[in-house]
Amino acid sequence: TYRSNQCNTPRPLHDHIYNIYSRLVATEVKGYIMSHFSFRVLELLGN
Q: Taking the domains of the chain in order of start, what are their residue ranges?
């Protein structure tokens, strides 16, 4: 599905969308890890 999708969209536009998407996903993951990590630290410090 990814390859057939690639052909429909102009290459630069596809790259641009992919960059934005990957950046958003990376930010989401980082935010999740950071909040989860700080939660664990607070939990450990609390105990």
A: 2-46
Question: Who contacts 9 (Cβ-Cβ below 8 Å, separation ≥6)?
Answer: 17
* Interior angle at CA 46, CA 42 and CA 47, nearest 5: 125
> How do the pLDDT tens digits run along the chain, 47 residues long?
455 555 666 788 889 989 999 999 999 999 998 888 988 988 888 86
Of the candidates 34, 26, 32, the residue with the CA atom closest to the CA atom of residue 18: 26
pTM for this predicted structure: 0.45
